[in-house]
Design goal:
Helix content: 10-25%
Largest sheet: 7 strands, antiparallel
Oligomer: single chain
Number of strands: 34
Shape: elongated
Strand content: 25-35%
Distance between the termini: 51 Å
Number of domains: 2
Radius of gyration: 30 Å
């Protein structure tokens, strides 16, 4: 045990006089300096009640170990600590002296929100003088009482401050102890034990990791909440201003606002939340995972990733395929070569200015002139403002869309719009129409073989009539 603790914390006392010069008026506060502080599991050497935090890149153990972490050093190497509610956090420190003393002083701490660290005589351990780990307590009628974090209450301190005091008399009235410094670091308390790993019961819910930015945003926004629905709705407020940022080890915001389908456009497979945080740009799937992970880190099990499609598995039914091919024949005539058979049905967001059963160029491309001199115009779509700076009209045609369902409310973190209480309400607020985005091979006005994505509007959104598949 002694060897393990030695690796954690150092609090240094620097003396300017020799021990033989000390008198009864000697003031320890003049020669003591705090250098390190550490946090440790409430159940050390076990990890129950302790939360291991990963850096945003997902590398293991990079911010806090499995049962302890150094949270503050004199040279400002600050790292966060996290605990589960209803557990009693522990903290400790080391001191180093530049001279020999016949008697070691007593040290205690006063912390944020009225917690205290009990009086303890320093112990010499090699070159260090140690304040052994103690549980957060309250001081009542001259006695220390263990003070676990309030059960199921989310808490957060960007600067959990410990003010350290010293005295040569452990019975001295607290108001007469000498302050020797303050230390501060981020501290998180979750509602319940975080839910991590893969959810085998939900095909859309991917692996959850306790990434620092995810935990920070979850606790910072859910602060002081205990009811699960209140926690979820409070966390979601982070998304409503459409500028979500990562944090560094000190819980300070860094970098730009995370984006939704911002340039350069995304390609390839969906990202993990860790990859999304590092890249700063994501699809709806990653935004839904990000918000859902914040919920799961509070130990809440009742949220679900919800997938919205126009047709089942976004496949094109026969009647829609027939109407699409008829429109292609009328528009392309002899310029048409072939149609990609893997095309999908699509959701069209918000506003548009085009007609049913007509072919348009997809929003990614410019207008096309065919070999028959007909011009296929670009679809005029006005998107909904989404996550990221200046992202007033991101791409607006999708095979599907991912949101999060909790307690009868549908949350859309990609756009940060207000949650909706029914499938129809969500559909009516989000979509303008539905159709197909086909890849068509054709000859252009120079008789050159070309291919491009186009857009075919099959149906407008009829308010009050559910036209999409929303699962669950």
């Amino acid at each position: 045990m002694k060897k393990l603790i030695n690796t954690f914390l150092v609090i240094t006392f620097s003396f300017n006089i020799n021990a033989q010069d000390a008198t009864t008026d000697f003031d320890y506060a003049d020669v003591i300096q705090v250098t390190n502080v550490y946090g440790i599991s409430p159940t050390f050497p076990n990890s129950e009640g302790w939360i291991e935090i990963l850096a945003d890149d997902g590398s293991p153990g990079s911010l806090s170990g499995m049962a302890h972490t150094t949270v503050w050093t004199l040279n400002q190497q600050i790292k966060p600590a996290a605990f589960v509610s209803d557990y009693n956090a522990q903290f400790g420190a080391h001191f180093r002296f530049e001279c020999d003393l016949s008697e070691l002083p007593f040290v205690r701490g006063e912390t944020s929100d009225g917690y205290e660290l009990p009086i303890q005589e320093l112990e010499q351990d090699g070159t260090f003088h140690v304040y052994r780990r103690k549980k957060l307590s309250t001081y009542e009628s001259g006695n220390y009482v263990d003070a676990p974090f309030e059960k199921e209450k989310v808490q957060y301190w960007q600067d959990f401050t410990i003010t350290w005091f010293v005295s040569d008399d452990e019975d001295l009235e607290h108001s007469k102890w000498k302050e020797i410094g303050k230390t501060a670091f981020p501290l998180y308390v979750t509602h319940k034990e975080p839910i991590v790993g893969d959810n085998q019961n939900d095909e859309y819910d991917r692996e959850t990791q306790i990434l620092h930015s995810t935990l920070n945003l979850s606790c910072k926004n859910g602060i002081n909440k205990s009811d699960e629905s209140d926690i979820v709705s409070s966390i979601y407020t982070e998304f409503t201003n459409q500028c979500v940022k990562r944090v560094n080890d000190k819980a300070e915001e860094i970098g730009n606002c995370l984006g939704y389908w911002q340039p350069p456009n995304l390609s390839g497979d969906c990202q993990s939340v860790s990859e999304f945080l590092l890249n700063g740009n994501a699809r709806c799937n990653e935004w839904a995972d990000f918000f859902n992970d914040m919920i799961k880190l509070q130990g809440i099990t009742s949220s679900k990733i919800t997938i919205i499609e126009y047709t089942e598995n976004s496949l094109i039914p026969q009647d829609l395929d027939m109407r699409l091919r008829l429109a292609i024949d009328q528009e392309f005539e002899d310029c048409f070569v072939s149609l990609n058979t893997n095309d999908h049905s699509v959701l069209i967001v918000n506003k548009y200015n085009f007609s049913l059963d007509k072919i348009y160029v997809d929003e990614f491309y410019t207008e096309k002139i065919l070999c028959n001199d007909k011009t296929v115009t670009k679809a005029n779509i006005e998107g909904i403002p989404a996550q990221g700076v200046g992202n007033g009209s991101p791409i607006s045609v999708f095979w599907n869309h991912a949101i999060v369902l909790h307690d009868g409310k549908y949350y859309d973190p990609s756009y940060g719009v207000s949650p909706k209480t029914s499938k129809i309400d969500y559909e009516d607020s989000a979509f303008a129409g539905f159709g197909v985005s086909p890849q068509i091979f054709y000859f252009d006005q120079n008789d050159e073989f070309k291919t491009s994505l186009f857009l075919f509007l099959d149906d407008e959104n009829t308010l009050g009539d559910q036209q999409t598949i929303i699962n669950p």
